């Protein structure tokens, strides 16, 4: 005859506070590895993560080259609109701050900058060509949510010649890469490091 024993978890209602970050808690009987603890302490102290440009200079220069090649032949205002919209979607405050400032310097209006996030509800602020680019930006940036719909692609293809469309796509890819670099390395909005 087999006897089943049920073990319950210890009562932790009176356990000491083990919160190490606002949304990370270590259970009382678990200890973090020293390198993890040091990384969390560094983050809490406000120190930044690795400097990607210094840690991987060839990769960084390759991304810069990709970005420069993607922009060739594109209207600078369109470039900024694409970069701003992707940065909204990726929640990249660092890039959003940088590209809204770049757009202002290039003469973009405050009205249009405020409307980029809600362009579908404010279409009259944007040309049909810009709307097609913004829709493509959203589809490519959120590609995991449903791919790039044929209708979105067809609308973009109707407004851009093939080579220009390839550059628009490349620009969308580069800003998504930059957003991911900035987010994963903890770049802080307002500290444009170019």
Write a structural description.
- The chain is mainly α.
- Helices cover 57% and strands 3% of the residues.
- The protein contains nine helices and two strands.
- It has helices at residues 34-44, 52-55, 57-71, 76-89, 93-105, 110-115, 128-141, 150-159, 162-184, and strands at 19-21, 24-25.
- It has a two-stranded antiparallel sheet.
- Strand 1 and strand 2 form a beta hairpin.
- Helix 3 (57-71) runs antiparallel to helix 9 (162-184), helix 4 runs parallel beside helix 7 (128-141) and helix 7 packs across helix 9 (162-184).
- The longest helix is centred in the C-terminal third of the chain and has 23 residues, at 162-184.
- The protein is globular, with a radius of gyration of 23 Å.
- The N and C termini lie far apart (73 Å).
- Residues 1-32 have low confidence and may be disordered.
Oligomerization state: single chain
Percent strand equals: under 5%
Q: Helix and strand string, N-terminal first?
A: EEHHHHHHHHH
> Radius of gyration over alpha carbons?
23 Å
Unreliable spans: 1-32
Q: Could you give the distance between the termini? A: 73 Å
Number of strands: 2
Number of DSSP helical runs? 9
Output the structural class.
Answer: mainly alpha
- Percent of residues in helices: 55-70%
Rounded mean pLDDT score: 84
Tell me the strand order in the biggest sheet: 1-2
Shape: globular
Largest sheet: 2 strands, antiparallel
């Amino acid at each position: 005859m087999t006897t089943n024993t049920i073990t319950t978890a210890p009562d932790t209602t009176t356990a000491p506070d083990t919160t190490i970050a606002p949304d990370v808690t270590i259970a009382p009987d678990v200890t973090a590895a020293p390198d993890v603890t040091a990384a969390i302490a560094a983050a809490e102290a406000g120190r930044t993560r690795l400097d990607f440009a210094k840690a991987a200079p060839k990769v960084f220069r390759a991304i810069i080259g990709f970005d420069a090649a993607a922009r060739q032949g594109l209207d600078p205002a369109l470039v900024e609109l694409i970069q701003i919209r992707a940065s909204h979607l990726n929640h990249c405050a660092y890039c959003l701050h940088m590209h809204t400032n770049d757009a202002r310097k290039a003469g973009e209006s405050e009205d249009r900058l405020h409307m980029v996030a809600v362009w579908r509800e404010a279409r009259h602020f944007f040309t049909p060509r810009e709307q097609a680019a913004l829709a493509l930006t959203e589809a490519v940036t959120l590609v995991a949510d449903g791919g790039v719909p044929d209708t979105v692609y067809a609308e973009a293809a109707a407004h851009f010649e093939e080579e220009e469309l390839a550059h628009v796509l490349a620009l969308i890819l580069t800003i998504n890469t930059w957003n991911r670099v900035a987010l994963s390395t903890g770049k802080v909005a307002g500290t444009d490091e170019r």
